[in-house]
Target: Citrate synthase
Amino acid sequence: MAASLRSVFSRSPFAARTAFHSARFSSTVSKQPTLKERLSELIPAEIENVKRIRAEHGKKTFGPVAVDQLYGGMRGLPALIWDGSVLDAEEGIRFRGKSIPECQHLLPKAPGGSEPLPEGLFWLLVTGEIPTQQQVEELSKDWAARAAIPEFVEEILDRCPPTLHPMSQFSLAVTALNHDSAFAKAYQDGISKKEYWSPTFEDCMDLIAKLPNIAGRIYRNVFGQGKLPAIDQAKDYSHNLAALLGFGDNEAFVELLRLYITIHSDHEGGNVSAHTGKLVGSALSDPFLAFGASLNGLAGPLHGLANQEVLIWLRKMQDKIGENASDEAVKDYVWSTLKGGQVVPGYGHAVLRKTDPRYTAQREFAMKHLPDDPLFKLVGQIYNVVPDILLQAGKAKNPWPNVDAHSGVLLTHYGLTQMQFYTVLFGVSRAFGVAAQLIWDRGLGAPLERPKSYSSSAIEMMFKDKQA
Ligand code: FAM
Model:
């Protein structure tokens, strides 16, 4: 065994890690398959499944393309395949067919905890299966073992001015992780297409594992919260992330993070961050480059930055109309936002047409853990007035709250009051979905993305002599 391990070590660090995992596996009789072992069984079957679907249906068409969709941000344009999660306009997100309450019920929990472990959600996104307690514990251990970030990435972060937005710092650090990409190295070494998924998997595991150290370092550098503690190899991912942010002793906050990461992880394939990761990954940019690009999209105020914007808006509202303001005063403030040509942050959605179940899950958490929090009460009051106003204003297709209307209030309650940091936590979570998608795209041999663009004159020419 030692000799064969040494020979793979000399080939590449990725091959060595794989061999180490299999060596560990074979030495424990009752050990259940690791995520990578399970994937290596699932990928060949799915390749055959996709071949069959394409042979049977590949030439069929559905959904006409309207010119409005070309000018209108491609709303509803069928263009992507992603099995990990599907978003229904009325019902909200399902992860591999499971609603948020079902995930909360079915996924393994930490001892004494009641929220799902994000490790389990990742397993579900990747395999479509509910993992065992042992399998999520192995994943926690694996991620803790991979959590250290290279010294030069620490230096990059330490040199960033605290005035550089945390999301820009986050994206810089993630992009720099490409220095040690197993995929980039394997590609340079001439890896066969059939094997792409394996170093992609290793990069994705490293990516997720390293995010708490990156997020923790940004938080402490920017907001002056002292030295980072070491990762605790015996604890789960969310506990370690909470500890790095300085909240490891607060079990309710750790539970919040478990729920937070789970519900923010994925929102089907077409949203800006998920689609950007897939698009950039399709050029065979490694997962660090692809996810760095996702983060830059998430940092926009119409997408992930909305959680920061909500808190800023709430605070401005409180400054203007005071705490415990009447419904009338809140309504006037909402109207003044709209009349100023601004959006009401945390409300509306490109796909959803009902209250976001991610909002509901957070509201239920708040009812259980912080029912009397004044800011939570204000969020409830806003929920009672904003939808009617957006309907009266007559523009927004969806007047209901989305995920970002609630998350900042929960974080603030536990003392994480620095709203410029909120989107970083969204980013840590979104890595789970983007990574799962990248692994499958490389597993199924997804091609380079290259949709067709048209000029306006070409559109006019196309319909010149046709009746309406
Ligand atoms: N406040 C005011 N106006 C709104 C609005 C809101 N919350 N939501 C939509 N509108 C407006 C929108 O700006 C557009 O106006 P114009 O015709 O002047 O361009 C009109 O209503 C039609 O928009 P839509 O078709 O209903 O929405 P879109 O699909 O174009 O955009 C959002 C979707 C999410 C960008 C939009 O609802 C919005 O800006 N919401 C506030 C920002 C926010 O909360 N973003 C986070 C979304 C979240 F789920 C996430 O990605 N993290």
